[in-house]
Design goal:
By secondary structure, this protein is α/β, with parallel strands linked by helices. The chain starts with 9 loop residues before the first strand and ends with a helix. The structure holds (2S,3S)-3-hydroxy-2-methylbutanoyl-COA. (2S,3S)-3-hydroxy-2-methylbutanoyl-COA (T1G) binds next to strand 6 and helix 3.
């Protein structure tokens, strides 16, 4: 993106430089990777403008970014640290007040504070392909440098509300339509900046101060957005504050900015801000793995064994990412079912605007092939086995793959629980074997656990992570144990829910408490959705090795004995029919029967107690997963639950939540619960150490 002359200019500091072209002055920002508005960028920009304004022959100043984007926002890493002058809102006011016209050139992803700098400038020119947005609400805050006051002046209250409360970026054409930018011009940022400055000098382009633009009040839009957010975001803090801020944009700018700052600080003080920012960085931190420097193997065509829900979902995800896919099934009927499911999935992608009809047809005609023989996968670069969860069947398949797959092919299993070391041992090339654990629906869910077996090679691991990036998934590295990170912890905390159900709480009460905490669904709604027969099969598999001390709740098994497996059979813990969804009275009867059989006198559980036991159980088992090195860091466990298990993003994940609760309080709770069941409730050594040493899981993320 750089032309020769860009390297020139006078450096103000490491990240800001100025260049003179006669009466025109250019300011370049160069703070990779995303020109975040760090202290150096803010102070450098302020000094640059001050210096140029002091030079009487400066007639127009133009601002642009080097690298892949103009400012992508305030530097999030500075949050929570003592703020350094100049603050971004003051810098924006300084730019707006400038006597010398300031032109801003936008490119890449101009977001948050970056767009606010542009809105405070006197003219905005954007390159084609630019995306602009105010995503602060996704971080639990609101635009705090004038965005809530200047955006309505340019785009109107309605459009500004959508931009600010959704946090979603707009394509440049839409931004132009809304008046957030003045025009689109192709070229290199520096060259566009120079041309735009000249156009202002020649009087071709008109500049203006946003603060002087009068805009129509729109009480209706404000009320409509308040009502919408009450329904869609009842648990979130900042979206409602965003509306409060836009609501005062009728006031003179200085007064509106004061109120914006007050509301911004309220959001900064909310624990949701910490949770959402933790989630932002969790998404990125998990890519930092020991095998990161290994070179991923080249993957062009992928083999998928199994056309069931998972197999066809994985095939769809790979096809949508541009891979050629060969799907195998034992017979034509299975292939037809799988192909039909892929077709339905692709149709859904067309409806969601993620795929064109031409793209769909191209995929189905040229990218997808099917076969009933595994030999068809002999040339595949990567083979993903997605057949039902049976060790002997999987070992048999991997034994065959060992004979037919080409040298260097990566052999992956989509097992959700089983021992990947044992599967790898069924081949003579364990270094090529890895677990790639997708989540249903596999073409939608963002999480992928990359399960690293003892002999898995570093480049096979790197290949798994590279694949995830291409599939736009978040890969989390997991060691081998029963259920890896996510399912192991879920299996454990689900028992805490079952114990509460046996002791007096109804499935509906438990689900209500857990959704009230912020989960998309409660444990019994999830069980019914996933299919009760899945955990029934797992319970049978584990029955032989279940420790005698472990309390076992047979309620779900009894429901399955009736042939009720949840949604797919129309009933489970709930009934699902044309009258909607409601608790299943016959399931409740089974619960009463099992309580009577066990001599349990049911008692009441408050919502808080249900959440406390559920979340404490989750953290307890998560701490053991960490102790055993199955998860690299606490943040990896947070990412698994945020992106695969519907853990409320504003709470940052189970380990971030553990720090909010505190290790000492968690130990206190476990010791109280252990009076009922000392086998289930045991304090992990690591948690006791943190409690005694005053340590946190966050510190372990730094290691
Ligand atoms: N601050 C600090 N670091 C940032 C950053 C930011 N704003 N944005 C990205 N990074 C880091 C990121 O952690 C990663 O680091 C690297 O840059 C590449 O990012 C007053 C207060 C811009 C669309 O919310 O959405 O302005 O992992 O892997 O996929 O109103 O990053 O390599 O060490 O994501 O190409 C508002 C956040 C801030 C935008 C690029 N802005 N960033 O996506 O790369 S609040 C945002 C993004 C604000 C004002 C308020 C994306 C991106 P590392 P990446 P990408």
């Amino acid at each position: 993106m750089q032309s020769g002359s860009e390297r020139g200019g006078t450096a103000i500091n490491d990240v800001v430089s100025i260049e003179r072209q006669g009466p025109l002055a250019l300011i370049a920002l160069d703070n990779p990777p995303v020109n975040a508005a760090s202290h150096a960028v803010r102070s450098g920009l302020w000094q640059a403008i001050e210096a140029l304004q002091a030079q009487p022959d400066t007639r127009v100043i133009a601002l642009y970014g080097r690298g892949r984007t103009f400012i992508a926002g305030a530097d999030i890493r500075e949050f929570g640290k003592p703020p350094k002058d100049p603050w971004l809102p003051d810098l924006c006011n300084f730019i707006e007040d400038c006597e010398t016209p300031v032109v801003c050139v936008l490119h890449g992803t101009t977001l948050g504070g970056g767009l606010e700098v542009a809105l405070a400038s006197h003219l905005r020119v954007a390159l084609p392909g630019t995306r602009v947005g105010l995503p602060e609400v996704t971080l639990g805050i609101l635009p705090g440098a004038g965005g809530t006051q200047r955006a309505p002046r340019l785009a109107g209250v309605g459009a500004a509300l959508d931009l600010i409360t959704s946090g979603k970026p707009l394509p440049v054409e839409k931004a132009l339509e809304h008046g957030l930018i003045d025009r689109i011009e192709d070229g290199l940022p520096r060259d566009v900046a120079l041309r735009a400055a000249r156009a202002v000098l020649d009087g071709h382009d008109r500049t203006r101060r946003t603060r002087d633009i009068a805009h129509e009040p729109d009480a209706e839009a404000l009320e409509a957005m308040r009502a919408k957010l009450k329904k869609t975001q009842p648990l979130l803090f900042s979206p409602h504050k965003c509306v409060d801020a836009v609501a005062v944009s009728q006031l003179p700018l200085s007064e509106g900015l004061k109120e914006e700052r007050r509301l911004f600080n309220e959001c900064m003080d909310s624990p949701q801000r910490a949770g959402l920012i933790h989630a932002f960085f969790a998404e990125r931190a998990v890519a930092k793995i020991p095998e990161a420097s290994a070179k991923p193997r080249d993957i062009q065509n992928i083999g998928v064994i199994g056309g069931g829900t998972m197999g066809s979902g994985i095939a769809t995800a790979a096809l949508l990412a541009g891979f050629s896919v060969t799907m195998t099934e034992r017979d034509q009927a299975g292939l037809d079912r799988g192909t039909a499911t892929i077709g339905k999935n692709l149709e859904g992608a067309v409806k969601r605007g993620k795929l064109s009809t031409e793209g769909r047809d191209e995929i189905l005609s040229a990218k997808l092939s099917t076969a009933t023989e595994l030999d068809a996968l002999a040339d595949a670069d990567l083979i993903i086995e997605a057949v039902f969860e049976d060790m002997d069947v999987k070992k048999d398949i991997f034994g065959t793959l060992d004979k037919i797959a080409k040298p260097g092919a990566v052999l992956a299993s989509n097992t959700s629980y089983l021992d990947v070391n044992e599967i790898a041992a069924a081949t003579g090339r364990p270094e090529d074997v890895i677990g790639l654990h997708f989540f249903s629906p596999a073409h939608i869910m963002r999480l992928m656990e990359v399960v690293v077996a003892e002999k898995t090679s570093a480049d096979a691991v790197a290949t798994g992570f590279a694949l995830a990036k291409k599939l736009k998934k978040i890969a989390v590295r997991s060691g081998v144990c029963d259920g890896f990170i996510g399912n192991r912890i879920m299996t454990f905390y689900k028992k805490a829910a079952d114990y509460m159900m046996m002791d007096g709480a109804s499935p509906e009460e438990i689900d209500r408490a857990i959704t009230g905490f912020g989960f998309a669904m409660g444990p019994y709604q999830v069980a019914d959705l996933a299919g009760l027969d899945i955990s029934w099969a797992a319970n049978k598999r584990r029955a032989a090795t279940r420790p005698a001390e472990e309390r076992y709740i047979p309620i779900a098994d009894e429901i399955c004995e009736k042939g009720w497996f949840g949604r797919k059979t129309g009933q489970g813990f709930y009934i699902y029919d044309t009258d909607g969804t409601r608790p299943n009275p016959e399931a409740l009867a089974i619960i009463d029967e099992e309580r009577a059989k066990a001599g349990v006198i049911p008692r009441t559980f408050s919502g808080d107690e249900i959440v406390s036991r559920f979340v404490t159980a989750m953290i307890l088992e998560a701490t053991r997963v960490l102790e055993e090195g199955i998860a690299l860091r606490p943040v990896d466990i947070d990412a698994v639950f945020l992106f695969g298990y519907g853990f409320p993003r504003f709470r940052g994940g189970p380990m971030h939540t553990a720090d909010q609760i505190g290790a000492a309080e968690l130990v206190r709770r476990i010791e109280i619960y252990a009076q009922e069941d000392s086998y289930y409730w045991q304090v992990p050594t690591l948690l006791r150490k943190l409690a005694e040493g005053g340590g946190t899981f966050a510190e372990m993320n730094e290691n």
